[in-house]
Amino acid sequence: MAMHVSGACFSVFSGSRVGNIKAVASEGFATVKTAEDKVKLGGSDLKVTKLGVGAWSWGDTSYWNNFQWDDRKMKAAKAAFDTSLDNGITFFDTAEVYGSRASFGAINSETLLGRFIKERKQRDPEVEVTVATKFAALPWRLGRQSVLAALKDSLFRLGLSSVELYQLHWSASHESVFCFFFLNFLDKQLLINCLPWIFRAGIWGNEGFIDGLGDAVEQGLVKAVGVSNYSEKRLRNAYEKLKKRGIPLASNQVNYSLIYRKPEENGVKAACDELGITLIAYCPIAQGALTGKYTPQNPPTGPRGRIYTAEYLRNLQPLLNRIKELGENYSKTSTQVVLNWLLAQDNVVPIPGAKNAEQAAEFAGALGWRLTDEEVNELRSMASEIKPVVSFPLENL
């Protein structure tokens, strides 16, 4: 999923050193009814459910949950986790920068997911849970060892000895550019003094981080590796570097939805299809904007309200009305229609964020049926009339 800077500033300090851990996320037998309900992740041997669940909002107080986290919201997230498993969805995506233990009673998303897994296994030891998490290319992290150290901290928070998928959350160049503009705003002389460090982080950080992914595979800490928010050029470079070690690049996680199709326009989707890399789609329902829940009179609250404004939602209404009509034809909700649209693109695994049991159950209803090609094309044509919102600002680097 996405990275929210203010959340990242807190949660990276929440991990402790990894200890002796017994549990493994993939232990047990599948709860999915048939093998056809799973897909291989890129060229790896890892199979995941065709639709996963994003845990970006779990424990977060910097972007989601109206800046508050409490026991009621934790129970709702736990219900979302259990309901997903009950409906055969076993793939969960988190990150070390999701959630925080340092503000407003929040908690790290990895910690929550680990707790949910442990509690579920206590009553259902054979349940399967496939875990994906992500490494944050923070300014002070350089080289392959930083990847392994961060991974071990993530494993500690998760309470696992390995995870199925480990991803680089964004490239080192992203944080270098962020630092450049931030320091330029604060003090130009400070920027000049820091330029050698910024250059080193941006150029050499990516090389070392990719090496770190390969090391994690070879040490048995992960089954597969991927990247996130990577442009076509950086995606190809990462693919080739790992290929030299005989390790497939399994995935690239990017913002992708019916109203945000930048991966189709910037070559990322085509490169994924060509190289056999699965595209994991975060924000597949556009943070709720495509569900029909929000209207010009009832926009989303918090930071999302500054993105999906009343004016934007007004322009979105014709598309939302058509989505609703199609859903009624299939006895499906608007949410299920837009997720099915993504599934129809092939080589795409959407990971909508589930905050409660009702949402998790609804997401499962996107599986087991398919829009016609004519309907898929009609929705694309209507969506092309809508100006996309700004996503992760550095995704083209």
UniProtKB/TrEMBL annotation:
<dbReference type="InterPro" id="IPR023210">
    <property type="entry name" value="NADP_OxRdtase_dom"/>
</dbReference>
<dbReference type="InterPro" id="IPR020471">
    <property type="entry name" value="AKR"/>
</dbReference>
<dbReference type="GO" id="GO:0005737">
    <property type="term" value="C:cytoplasm"/>
</dbReference>
<dbReference type="Pfam" id="PF00248">
    <property type="entry name" value="Aldo_ket_red"/>
</dbReference>
<protein>
    <recommendedName>
        <fullName>NADP-dependent oxidoreductase domain-containing protein</fullName>
    </recommendedName>
</protein>
<dbReference type="InterPro" id="IPR036812">
    <property type="entry name" value="NAD(P)_OxRdtase_dom_sf"/>
</dbReference>
<dbReference type="GO" id="GO:0016491">
    <property type="term" value="F:oxidoreductase activity"/>
</dbReference>
<dbReference type="InterPro" id="IPR050791">
    <property type="entry name" value="Aldo-Keto_reductase"/>
</dbReference>
<feature type="domain" description="NADP-dependent oxidoreductase">
    <location>
        <begin position="50"/>
        <end position="382"/>
    </location>
</feature>
<dbReference type="InterPro" id="IPR018170">
    <property type="entry name" value="Aldo/ket_reductase_CS"/>
</dbReference>
<keyword id="KW-0521">NADP</keyword>
<keyword id="KW-0560">Oxidoreductase</keyword>
